[in-house]
Amino acid sequence: MSESTVRPRQPSMADVARTAGVSAQTVSRALRGSPNVNPETRRRVLAAVEQTGYRFNSAARALSSGRSHTIGLVLLASGGYYSRSAVTAGVEAAAGAAGYAVNIATIAALDTGLMERALARLADQGVDGFVIAVPLISVTPKMEDITRDIPTVTLDGSRTAGARVLGIDQREAGRVATQHLLDLGHRQVWHISGPDEWIEARRRRQGWQECLAAAGIEAPPPLEGDWSPDSGHRLGQIVAMIPEVTAVFVASDEMAFGVIRALRERGRSVPEDVSIVSVDDIALAAYCAPPLTTVRQDFYRYGAAAVALLLDDDETDAGESAATASLSLRASTAPPRRS
Q: What is the pLDDT of residues 41-90, one digit of tens each?
């Protein structure tokens, strides 16, 4: 290929930022018409756009229209497959009904650097709002900066200063599940938790511990899984070898499926020998053998409600919107055998 046929590199937002002497995030905010960018900075950014020949993307076009009519959804690749799919479906349905498209960024692990890059990429695309379905425990200054000017709703995850939080109270979910087993007459409740880096897992474990403490019961050491049926099966084999275990609170339905199989393989039946209660109430929970008692989370509805919050201009409602933790009673729990 001759030198004359080589296409020159198109100017990027980073080129504009360098020319204007500002950050790429400031360029993105200026091109979205954010009120938090002072007029002199906006003038420098627009002059840099003209000087570099930067081609306006959706963020720049939003400067004249006021909106890109796009919502950014951030998801985690690992974790519950069913919950992730339901959240996505709810967000896309509600956004589509309101005339919005959805841009999705999926991160591979619970890592603040990955989260920062996902948010920055969506911000550069000019999204009007974020739905964050990633349970990061910590929030970085860069995440705060990116979400300061873009409406943000988190689903039971970490919140930035201006974000709204939507979902059930996960501590209450742990208390409700544990109290149900105590009310049936079990004198101790064991716990198979989710990964410690997940804020939901920590809060559910905290609710379990608080409920036992209120009943004057010392909590046994929790067993940590990774949300997968395989980890539930592995930890269920450990539980099955402890004769005094009669009740287990499992942090997710998918892990509970594995626990029930492990108990059955070890000759212990559910609920006759061991009662199982979990969290999520995914569609398969009702078809488990036995059908699973579980704290309900309506992921589809949460996804749709997150979009409604983003499109609601009334900032007086900003804060945490917690749904009531309700128990779907099925056949996996029963009073303990009489000795």
A: 888 888 888 888 776 544 444 444 456 789 999 998 877 778 888 999 99
Q: How far is CA 61 from the centre of its chain?
A: 30
Q: How confident is the model at residue 32 (pLDDT cuts 50, 70, 90)?
A: low
d(Cα 163, Cα 182) in Å, to the nearest integer? Answer: 36
Task: Give the other-Cβ count within 10 Å of 158's Cβ.
Answer: 19
- Closest C-alpha to 104, from 132, 65, 83: 132
Could you write out the three-class secondary structure of 187-241?
Answer: CCCEEEECCCCCHHHHHHHHHHHHHHHHCCCCCCCCEECCCCHHHHHHHHHHHHC
Tokens 């990774």 belong to residue = 226
pTM for this predicted structure:
0.76
| DSSP track, 70-137 | EEEEEEESSS-HHHHHHHHHHHHHHHHHTT-EEEEEEESSS-HHHHHHHHHHHHHTT-SEEEEE---S
Q: What stretch of H or E contains 171?
A: helix 170-183
What percent of the residues of the chain are helix, what percent strand, and what percent coil, each to the nearest 5?
45, 15, 40
